[in-house]
Structures are given as C-alpha cells and as structure tokens.
Write a structure and sequence with these properties.
121 residues; mainly alpha; two-stranded antiparallel sheet; 6 helices
Length: 121
C-alpha cells in the first residue's frame, strides 16, 4: 500500500530529526508553553546558539512554531500532544535504562507531566 509507505517514511523522517537528546528535552520543556531561546537555554543549561540550531531543525519539520512579540521571538509546540507521546515513550525504553530504577523512571515521567501543567508567563 503506497499510503503506508508514505506514512512510514514521514514517521522515520520525524524520528530522525528529533533523535538528539537536546531536541527531546526542548520538546518536553516547550510543553509548558511559549518560551524564548534564552529561557530554554537557561532551563536546559545549553547555549542559546545550540538551542537556536535545534529549534531550527524542529521548525523545519513543523514540530515547533514561532511568534514575534516586539523584539522577542517565542517558540511553542505545534502539536502539544507530542510531548505527552514522548513521555509515554519512556515506558517503551524503560527496559533499556538499566542504570535507572523503576522509581527513577516514574519520577522522571511525573516531573515532565508536571511541567506540562505549569504555565510560563
């Protein structure tokens, strides 16, 4: 079926583009709402230059949107459910995380879910 092949190719493309730990962390941080490059860099402890580069990749595949407010450019998830999907993906890879206990994994998921409930002002 051609449609299955198209969907599989698109999914593979998206997964390749988000397959960097910093990009996954960015997507999870953006679940809390609109944030600037500097805010994201401070939260994730990575340079604004690197944040911008990663956001550029995510924007190119339409996972992140931008909006300009005066001199500030803010970023948001185009589909907020993506972050929730990533959090649920932790269960899928949990068996590979031999360094992390089940409690550690659940705590990480709870923290990321809690961030989704927070709002950024």
């Amino acid at each position: 079926m051609p449609s299955r092949k198209i969907v599989a190719n698109e999914l593979a493309h998206v997964l390749r583009q988000i397959s960097h730990p910093d990009r996954i962390r960015l997507l999870l941080k953006l679940q809390a709402g609109d944030q600037t490059v500097n805010e994201l860099g401070d939260l994730l402890e990575i340079s604004p230059t690197r944040v911008s580069q990663h956001l550029g990749v995510l924007r190119a595949i339409a996972l992140v949107e931008t909006e300009t407010h005066g001199q500030k450019r803010v970023y948001r998830l185009a589909q907020p459910e993506l972050a929730l999907w990533l959090i649920e993906g932790i269960d899928f890879v949990a068996h590979r995380l031999s360094r992390a206990s089940a409690v550690d994994i659940e705590q990480a998921k709870m923290l990321w879910r809690a961030e989704a409930a927070e709002t950024v002002i």
